[in-house]
């Protein structure tokens, strides 16, 4: 689907972005293995999370939609899932596949996880390796590619040092370890999003979080208590509107109720380093996650370096940071971000290719890119989404700052994470 985005000088208004994608997936999975009824409010009803919901239903869990975003899940405990009679389709969602591979590895039945073309080409060896060390039986195509078929087993706990700072990998191991008895220790090379740990603790699991390690304490039998959760707005979705507001010539935008968990909020630190005018208002804690209303004002940005430990805390925001870099005075260097090459698409290659098509000067490095602004972008051409929601939305925000606008092909993929993105963008441009 082609999506024409015209330039906009002013970005103004008050909006609410949809629920956090990572927390929505985890709410569905953990509620399904809790002992009884959980309630989820503000669940992200986008394709990725609907894939997880469909799979939990295929595994015998009753999930009822009460009204928009509000669901009741009848959890059946850690031993209550049932074998599905068909393959489990994760669509475009890496989180579904990696987290569920962990969970299903310890279930007493057979499962097959598959996904779309993009997901079937993303690295799964990173979970197959450690899960196999715990005793899991997982078969894949060559090089660890999905579909994955899993013959559930009784697993052993383990101590594991993650080779990459990946919350999906960490969560996969934690879910697999829930049915083991002795202690599991996971050491992270850098802090990645910690929603799984927070939610497991919230459900009564004995888990200790130290600076770089997570310790799932020894237990003869673990049980998760059911819970009620209000999912905060997704900071990774808010980031597109924060960038749009900062890059506009005038206006101010209030984004209500956004999750600002430190393990996710690296983007806000970069906005400040780039001289972006943002304020965090009405800060509170909701269901174990910190939230705030974010007030954004049109700003003159300057370039900065984005590297090191902050990368996993803003990994999904790098495409939109690269858009901000085009409009920022001076040089922006993004490095240590090789993980971008194995996301829904190779996001470094995609950004570089489409920016060059638009006449933007950009240097590609194996682990990132360098951009010197301010660059005037004429636009008036068609660009590609690479079947990647964040590439499509980043290009839409870039289009606002061009002379002639941009047409984004393959924009239907935006519904993976942000179904009402286009409507909200139309609303704030006035
Ligand atoms: C996610 C973790 C990140 C992120 C993805 C969602 C999660 O992936 O890119 O969009 O919900 O755990 P990695 O943990 O593999 O970096």
UniProtKB/TrEMBL annotation:
<comment type="pathway">
    <text>Metabolic intermediate biosynthesis; chorismate biosynthesis; chorismate from D-erythrose 4-phosphate and phosphoenolpyruvate: step 6/7.</text>
</comment>
<dbReference type="InterPro" id="IPR023193">
    <property type="entry name" value="EPSP_synthase_CS"/>
</dbReference>
<feature type="binding site">
    <location>
        <position position="316"/>
    </location>
    <ligand>
        <name>3-phosphoshikimate</name>
    </ligand>
</feature>
<feature type="binding site">
    <location>
        <position position="343"/>
    </location>
    <ligand>
        <name>3-phosphoshikimate</name>
    </ligand>
</feature>
<dbReference type="GO" id="GO:0003866">
    <property type="term" value="F:3-phosphoshikimate 1-carboxyvinyltransferase activity"/>
</dbReference>
<comment type="subunit">
    <text>Monomer.</text>
</comment>
<feature type="domain" description="Enolpyruvate transferase">
    <location>
        <begin position="8"/>
        <end position="424"/>
    </location>
</feature>
<dbReference type="InterPro" id="IPR001986">
    <property type="entry name" value="Enolpyruvate_Tfrase_dom"/>
</dbReference>
<protein>
    <recommendedName>
        <fullName>3-phosphoshikimate 1-carboxyvinyltransferase</fullName>
        <ecNumber>2.5.1.19</ecNumber>
    </recommendedName>
</protein>
<keyword id="KW-0808">Transferase</keyword>
<dbReference type="GO" id="GO:0009073">
    <property type="term" value="P:aromatic amino acid family biosynthetic process"/>
</dbReference>
<dbReference type="InterPro" id="IPR036968">
    <property type="entry name" value="Enolpyruvate_Tfrase_sf"/>
</dbReference>
<keyword id="KW-0963">Cytoplasm</keyword>
<comment type="function">
    <text>Catalyzes the transfer of the enolpyruvyl moiety of phosphoenolpyruvate (PEP) to the 5-hydroxyl of shikimate-3-phosphate (S3P) to produce enolpyruvyl shikimate-3-phosphate and inorganic phosphate.</text>
</comment>
<dbReference type="InterPro" id="IPR006264">
    <property type="entry name" value="EPSP_synthase"/>
</dbReference>
<feature type="binding site">
    <location>
        <position position="21"/>
    </location>
    <ligand>
        <name>3-phosphoshikimate</name>
    </ligand>
</feature>
<keyword id="KW-0057">Aromatic amino acid biosynthesis</keyword>
<comment type="similarity">
    <text>Belongs to the EPSP synthase family.</text>
</comment>
<dbReference type="GO" id="GO:0005737">
    <property type="term" value="C:cytoplasm"/>
</dbReference>
<feature type="binding site">
    <location>
        <position position="168"/>
    </location>
    <ligand>
        <name>3-phosphoshikimate</name>
    </ligand>
</feature>
<feature type="binding site">
    <location>
        <position position="21"/>
    </location>
    <ligand>
        <name>phosphoenolpyruvate</name>
    </ligand>
</feature>
<dbReference type="GO" id="GO:0009423">
    <property type="term" value="P:chorismate biosynthetic process"/>
</dbReference>
<feature type="binding site">
    <location>
        <position position="26"/>
    </location>
    <ligand>
        <name>3-phosphoshikimate</name>
    </ligand>
</feature>
<feature type="binding site">
    <location>
        <position position="347"/>
    </location>
    <ligand>
        <name>phosphoenolpyruvate</name>
    </ligand>
</feature>
<dbReference type="InterPro" id="IPR013792">
    <property type="entry name" value="RNA3'P_cycl/enolpyr_Trfase_a/b"/>
</dbReference>
<feature type="binding site">
    <location>
        <position position="390"/>
    </location>
    <ligand>
        <name>phosphoenolpyruvate</name>
    </ligand>
</feature>
<dbReference type="GO" id="GO:0008652">
    <property type="term" value="P:amino acid biosynthetic process"/>
</dbReference>
<feature type="active site" description="Proton acceptor">
    <location>
        <position position="316"/>
    </location>
</feature>
<keyword id="KW-0028">Amino-acid biosynthesis</keyword>
<feature type="binding site">
    <location>
        <position position="168"/>
    </location>
    <ligand>
        <name>phosphoenolpyruvate</name>
    </ligand>
</feature>
<feature type="binding site">
    <location>
        <position position="94"/>
    </location>
    <ligand>
        <name>phosphoenolpyruvate</name>
    </ligand>
</feature>
<feature type="binding site">
    <location>
        <position position="22"/>
    </location>
    <ligand>
        <name>3-phosphoshikimate</name>
    </ligand>
</feature>
<feature type="binding site">
    <location>
        <position position="122"/>
    </location>
    <ligand>
        <name>phosphoenolpyruvate</name>
    </ligand>
</feature>
<dbReference type="Pfam" id="PF00275">
    <property type="entry name" value="EPSP_synthase"/>
</dbReference>
<feature type="binding site">
    <location>
        <position position="166"/>
    </location>
    <ligand>
        <name>3-phosphoshikimate</name>
    </ligand>
</feature>
